[in-house]
Design brief:
By secondary structure, the protein is α+β, with helices and mostly antiparallel strands. 22% of the residues lie in helices and 25% in strands. The N and C termini lie far apart (43 Å). Belongs to the GTP cyclohydrolase I family. QueF type 1 subfamily.
């Protein structure tokens, strides 16, 4: 087993957690992937995502699904949780939040592949489910990203007001 020590992590195990209520990508931390020679998916499900509508300032609630194939670095889950929490008072449209999360995670980790899917609760009688993905250029994952996006949601689920 590889001894990770703390790998520079400051939030994991910190009993004095400070919650930030405004969008802050500096909250994200990474650690070394000890299996960089193997491709595998890591998936996070975050059923308590909240942001604000930039026009009405009403809260929007969603479940986020974040999946990625790590390269050399991986996102630490507590830092991800605090980062996602920081959207609580952030005003952006659903699509913008999902793209911003993807951009921040790509910049942070340089993953081989990443996808972020937001399943927002209906407001005004309509739900919005933005999906974004990324495959590292020049790798087989670039083609996987195109394929998954082109076939995304071919068989949408039955929606009964979630």
């Amino acid at each position: 087993m590889t001894d990770r020590k703390n790998d520079g992590l400051t939030l994991l195990g910190n009993k004095g957690t400070h919650y930030i209520f405004d969008y802050d990508p500096k909250l994200l931390e990474t650690f070394q992937n000890v299996h960089p020679d193997r491709d595998y998916f890591v998936k996070f499900n975050f059923p308590e995502f909240t942001s604000l509508c930039p026009i009405t300032h009403q809260p929007d609630f969603a479940t986020l699904h974040i999946s990625y194939v790590p390269g050399e670095r991986m996102v630490e889950s507590k830092s991800l949780k605090l980062y996602l929490f920081s959207f609580r008072n952030h005003g952006d449209f659903h699509e913008d939040c999902i793209n911003k999360i993807a951009d921040d995670l790509i910049k942070l980790m340089d993953p081989k592949y990443l996808e972020v899917w937001g399943k927002f609760l209906p407001r005004g009688g309509i739900s919005i489910d933005p999906y974004v993905n990324y495959g590292k250029k020049g790798t087989p994952w670039e083609a996987v990203a195109f394929e998954r996006l082109s076939k995304h949601d071919l068989y949408p689920e039955h929606i009964d007001n979630r």
